[in-house]
Amino acid sequence: MAEKLFYVSVGAVVGACARYLLSNYVAKHAFSAFPYGTLLINVTGSLVLGFFIIVATERLFVADRWRLLLAVGFCGSYTTFSSYAFESFALIEQGQWTQVALNVAGSNLLCLGAVAVGAALARWI
Questions:
Q1: What is the crossing angle of helices 2-29 and 36-54, to 10°?
Q2: Residue 46: what are its φ and ψ, rounded to 5°?
Q3: Other CB atoms closer than 10 Å to residue 92's CB: what's the count?
Q4: Are 68 and 8 in contact (CB under 8 A)?
Q5: pTM for the complete prediction?
Q6: CA dist list (Å): 44 to 32, 36, 64, 97
Q7: Is 95 left (phi over 0), alpha (psi -120 to 50) or beta?
Q8: How many Å apart are CA 120 and CA 74, to the nearest integer?
Q9: Most confident segment among 20-24, 30-34, 36-40, 57-61
Q10: Would you give the distance in Å from CA 110 to the centre of its chain?
């Protein structure tokens, strides 16, 4: 178990640092208040996760430590949006259109609502 946590931790540290550096770089060079850094991070994290999971499960034998390091650790701390996007994509490939709609609408609406509630609570206390 300690070895698995090591791989997740290393990936998470690298992912969090990459997110921080890229987000700051984009914010410094953006010409508007739109969160381009977050959008870029979500899209690139989704790209990396989608690419890696397919390569790791359909093309090559990839040791579990690489999945823990890259998919769980790096992508998990770089962006959790990548997990949501890949899971939605998997449902699309399976033709589970009702579940896709529920996941997309639910994740977006519920998370936006949760942010609003969290912000309201923070402002209230």
A1: 140
A2: -65, -40
A3: 14
A4: yes
A5: 0.78
A6: 20, 12, 22, 25
A7: left
A8: 31
A9: 20-24
A10: 17
